[in-house]
Amino acid sequence: MKYEALLQRKTFDGAMPGRGTIRIVSLAANTLRVIGAWRRRARERRVLGELNPHQLADIGLKPSDVWIETNKPAWRT
After folding, report:
1. Structural domain includes residue 76
2. How far apart are the first and last CA of the chain?
3. Could you tell me the sign of the dihedral formed by the alpha carbons of 31, 35, 36, 41, in that order?
4. ∠ Cα 72 51 55 (to 5°)
5. Domain count across the chain
6. Considering the domain boundaries, does residue 51 fall inside one?
7. Tens digit of pLDDT for each residue in 22-52?
8. What pTM did the predictor assign?
9. Range of 59's domain?
10. What confidence tier does 53 reach under pLDDT thresholds 50, 70, 90?
11. pLDDT exceeding 70 applies to what percent of the chain?
12. Could you tell me the CA-to-CA distances from 25 to 37, 49, 69 in Å, in that order?
C-alpha cells in the first residue's frame, strides 16, 4: 500500500489517523526506501564484480576501480 493511501485510511472508529500514526508510516516508508536502495547497490556491485576485463574495458573501467567499488558496504555511495 502506498504512503498516501495509508494516510487517507480511517481507523476502526472512523477517525483519521493522528500525527503519531503518520510519523510511524512515514518512518516505515523511508526505512523501506533506504533498504531498497541498499539492496539495489549491493546487486549492482555484485554484477559489476562479475564482469570480465574485456567488458570492463568496454565501459571504461579498470579492475582496480571495480575492486574499490565492489568492496564498499551497501550503505556507502
Report:
1. no
2. 28
3. positive
4. 125
5. 1
6. yes
7. 788 889 999 999 999 999 999 999 999 999 9
8. 0.64
9. 3-70
10. very high
11. 74
12. 18, 36, 33
